[in-house]
Amino acid sequence: THGIETLCVRAQWSSKGIQGQGKKKSKAILREGHHEHLKWWGQKMQLCQKPSTKQLVNKLVYSNLLGLDENLKNGSIKNGSFNWELLQFKLRFPREVLLCRVGEFYETLGFDACILVEYAGVNPMGGIRSNTVPKAGCPVMNLRQTLDELTRNGFSA
């Protein structure tokens, strides 16, 4: 594994801290029952108002719980990849915002990046290039402020 340290911020629930675990053998990107979660994420994305968030939302797909378009740069969900490992967490916690520690940042991808940009006031990482997946994050030292912003906007931490 990549030794991922991930925080889950649940909408309407408390947050969970989970540590990266071994690779799981799962070929299903979208499993039975996940359509309701994708519909839920779609509703959340429709509520986004900021121009930068709307540009990110336009790059999402609704074929996996991360919202990643595999045709975009850094969108691969190949077995064993970083994105694949994030997807394994998302399959366990489909309606939570996952913040993954990468070096001195907590990063998000796809749906979660849109939520962070819209509600926590962070800028998209790498700008809003049309050929890359939505990505956002905050420095480790700003994690508390970011979680507070999510809490103020209806998410529990």
From TrEMBL:
<dbReference type="Pfam" id="PF01624">
    <property type="entry name" value="MutS_I"/>
</dbReference>
<dbReference type="InterPro" id="IPR016151">
    <property type="entry name" value="DNA_mismatch_repair_MutS_N"/>
</dbReference>
<feature type="domain" description="DNA mismatch repair protein MutS-like N-terminal">
    <location>
        <begin position="88"/>
        <end position="155"/>
    </location>
</feature>
<dbReference type="InterPro" id="IPR053276">
    <property type="entry name" value="MtDNA_mismatch_repair_MutS"/>
</dbReference>
<dbReference type="InterPro" id="IPR007695">
    <property type="entry name" value="DNA_mismatch_repair_MutS-lik_N"/>
</dbReference>
<dbReference type="GO" id="GO:0030983">
    <property type="term" value="F:mismatched DNA binding"/>
</dbReference>
<dbReference type="GO" id="GO:0006298">
    <property type="term" value="P:mismatch repair"/>
</dbReference>
<protein>
    <recommendedName>
        <fullName>DNA mismatch repair protein MutS-like N-terminal domain-containing protein</fullName>
    </recommendedName>
</protein>
<dbReference type="GO" id="GO:0005524">
    <property type="term" value="F:ATP binding"/>
</dbReference>
